[in-house]
Amino acid sequence: MDYRTKLCFCRDIYDQRASDRTFMEAVRRNVDCHLLKCKDYRRILESRGFSRSDGQRVMNAGEVPCIPTLFFKYHDLYSVPEASMVIKATSSGTGGVKSRIGFDKKSLFFAGVAAGRVIARHGLFSVRPVHYVILGFPPGKENQTAISRTQRLSTMFAPALSRKYALRKGKHGYRPDFNGLLEALRRYGRGNAPVRIIGFPAYLYFFLKEMERNRIFIRLPKHSMIMAGGGWKQFYKETVDKRELYRLGERHLGIPESHFREFFGAVEHPGVYCDCPNHHFHIPVTSRVVIRDVDTLEPVGYGTTGLVNLISPLAESMPLVSILTDDLGVLHRGCECGCGIEAPYLEIIGRTGVPEIRTCAAGAEEVLKEAGRSALR
């Protein structure tokens, strides 16, 4: 039996207490796998004083050295032949440089099972056919970003009657099709089939604000839903409180807050997080989250803001077991939520990728880039 099987097929996808031992065994075996199969990863960890024997003894997920997501934008770290990867994707490349990530069949299977169980737990699968409105790019060979693939997969949670994309390709590239979206939404509003709107929260906010400026009000059918994910990216300065999105969504589309769902994740992390009814990102059994001090990178406790370190042992194609994001977050005890899920939950505060914020993550990334250069010589 594969060491990831027991973890992915556990009884409760949010029962971390019951899964702690299984999770750590999977982490140890995953780290050992990459240390054996990826010499560049092994050299990087050895440059930080972490050996294979250390990996076999780790008792806490935070002991595994983390690699900044920025590193994957400059170096490929593969633990399997590239030809055996059945799917490849890139990050959105906000800064112009993109991570290239790939999954082999087994890694894709286990990541898919874990994501599917999270989605099912939050009631997003349905047999009721729906219309989809995607606030993003239509699928195409020129668009291989993970977010576009994720948005496409999201249209399979329920049978699709139609798919309407917000961006239309013209002579000068992609342009927003505001009038086309409004026409489609008005048409859907006259029918009975629910509508699911999928996309970046920034795009959703800009669209709803345009409706507000033009005093446009549409009542979408019962069971319609908004599913947002991907963060605000380069629009961080326009970030608004989630309650403003809920207000605009209900006022202009007739979709109540209870039908708003948000996702969090990273292309370099084989896991997905969906908010609960209280809009908190609880951590499933297939992942752990460590918050690290922005100056020392040492783990900090509950309630303290720091860099988000995502940990998951599901991928054997690349050493993605412990990655350090450029997100700032806070970890809370599950009992503070009140939704009934006891697993800790992650609150995202913002991103370090803005000029005003400087952390030692940049220094750590430089060290790793140098280690990577040495590994590749």
**Residue share in helix:** 25-40%
**Termini Cα gap:** 37 Å
By oligomeric state, this entry counts as single chain
H/E element order: HHHHEHEEHEHEEEHEHEHEEEEEEEH
Strand composition percent: 15-25%
Biggest sheet, in brief?
A: 6 strands, mixed
Radius of gyration in whole Å, from Cα? 21 Å
How many helical elements?
11
Kindly name the structural category: alpha/beta
How many strand elements? 16
What does the overall shape look like? globular
Task: Give keywords.
377 residues; alpha/beta; 6-stranded mixed sheet; disordered C terminus
Spell out the blueprint of helices and strands.
Blueprint: H1 5-8, H2 16-37, H3 39-47, H4 52-57, E1 67-68, H5 69-72, E2 87-90, E3 100-103, H6 105-121, E4 130-135, H7 146-154, E5 160-165, E6 167-170, E7 173-176, H8 178-189, E8 195-199, H9 201-213, E9 225-229, H10 242-253, E10 260-264, E11 273-274, E12 281-282, E13 288-292, E14 306-311, E15 322-332, E16 345-351, H11 360-376
Parallel strand pairs: 1-15, 4-5, 4-8, 8-9, 9-10
Antiparallel strand pairs: 2-3, 6-7, 10-11, 12-16, 13-14, 14-15, 15-16
Helix pairs in contact: 3-11, 9-10
